[in-house]
Each structure stands twice: as structure tokens, then as C-alpha cells.
Amino acid sequence: MAKVKTDRREFVKYSTLGILGAVLAGGFVFSPQAVKAENRLRPPGAVEEDRFLALCIKCGQCLQVCPYHSIKLADIGMGHGVGSPYIDATERGCYACSAVPCVLACPSGALDHHCEKPEDIHMGIAVLEFPDRCLATSNTPVPAGYNRFMHAFTDAQRNVTNLERELLEKLEGYEGKQCTLCADVCPIPNPLSAIAMVPDKNGGKRPEIYDGCIGCGACEEVCPTNTASIVVKPRVTYDEQYKNKS
What we know:
two-stranded antiparallel ribbon
């Protein structure tokens, strides 16, 4: 199981590098299209992308105060915005800390200080992108080895926090059971306003997303399938994803 999830991460990593190489070869590395194509999940409170890139001073303060090690800094292989913070939900989502410390730590306004609590966060929206792969819809149990994989990311950190340990404890015991991980791990105070498991036409259950979803990516992180069945679309609103397509 651990190798399967590692393969997923490697696919994401090298696909990104491949896109960057194609962009460089075409001479469009600074084009608006390239920036849009590399739209990444930003930390809570991030202002509009162009303003965010202009205001962010790449200080890394948000990364240093994140108790889940959710925030990373873009390197040169990521294209634009080198040194700017982002979240890779295939490795570690955001867990919507009650005091939103990353926002408090931002000195430049790239993370808006009006974002004071989890309900103020609007990072994107979760989407069941690959329903045919979702274990819950087919009543497939969570596979053996899942817990070992979830420990791997945290074990690699130098200063594991109590909050990370509590998260791992919460994820214990899912192996061999019906998968409800994405709904159970939702970190906002009222998770049922964001996601719930509902009956599926195939006889299982599936996650249904509601307008309380903040796009934190926790559900994408814990999804046990090779390519995560549920993913977060950065900076997309609930209305844009769901209401406007109904």
C-alpha cells in the first residue's frame, strides 16, 4: 500500500516537471497561461493569485508555524513563484487550525488577516474526481498497509507535533473496514456542512460535498486509492463547481 501511494506522489512530481519543461521549450514560462496552468493550493487566507505572488516575500514564516507540516515552499522546478508557500494535498492537507497561525505569521498581507477562524478559510473546493475508483462506492474495504503509509509522512518530520500524533491516532483502525475516511477527517468545526457519505447508485456510499467545504485538502490526503478519488480544486468556489453546472 505504501508503494502504491508513493507512486502516486512520484507521478504528480514528474508530471509537474514535464509540464515545466514543455513550457520552457515553448518560450512561454512567463505567460499568464503558464501561471494559470500551475495554479496551486495556497495556505489559508491567500489573496488572489496575482496579488499573492506580488505580496509574498517568501519569508517562510507560515511554514514555520504550521503544526501539521502542511506548507511547502516552491522550488525552481515548480516554475513561477519560487519560494512561495503552497500545500500539496497528496502528501499533507491543511487541518484548519482554530487560530489559523499561518495567517497570523504572515507579515506582508499575502495571507489576509481577516481570515481568523476555520470557517473564514476558502482555499478551493473538494470534488469526487474519480468516482469509479472510490472504495466507498464499491464497498471495498480500506486495504492493509494504509496505516503504515499514513505514518510515513509524519515520521519523516524532525519535530513531530502532538496534533500530528492525534491525527495518526484518529486514522488507526480503518484497515479492513468500509471507507469513510474523507468524511471522517474533515477538520472544520461542523464537518457535515462540508462533506457527508450518502448512498450511491452502485450500492455503496460516496462523499457528497456541500457549500461548507473550505478546500483544505485533508480528504485528498487520506484517500487510500492510488490516484486520490477525491481532490481539491484550488481557488474554485462551491457555486462555480456545483451550482453553475447543475
